[in-house]
Amino acid sequence: xxxxxxxxxxxxxxxxxxxxxxxxxxxxxxxxxxxxxxxxxxxxxxxxxxxxxxxxxxxxxxxxxxxxxxxxxxxxxxxxxxxx
Length: 84
Hints:
Largest sheet: none
Shape: elongated
Number of helices: 4
Radius of gyration: 15 Å
Order of helices and strands: HHHH
Structural class: mainly alpha
Number of strands: 0
């Protein structure tokens, strides 16, 4: 793996852990696609640093379990703003 990719992957992993961020918000921060962030964190990171990958996996699992709630809140907010 190329050095710039490893640096990006580790940087993304630390950002995700430090900010407890979602794949979407991390992608926006780094200006890359969600699929790249997801692939970096789930497939490439375990090859580089297994311990860091484990911490990130925990955050991704929590985000996945909460996504239906976030979606409902976003829809509620959208319709409340439309009523004003």
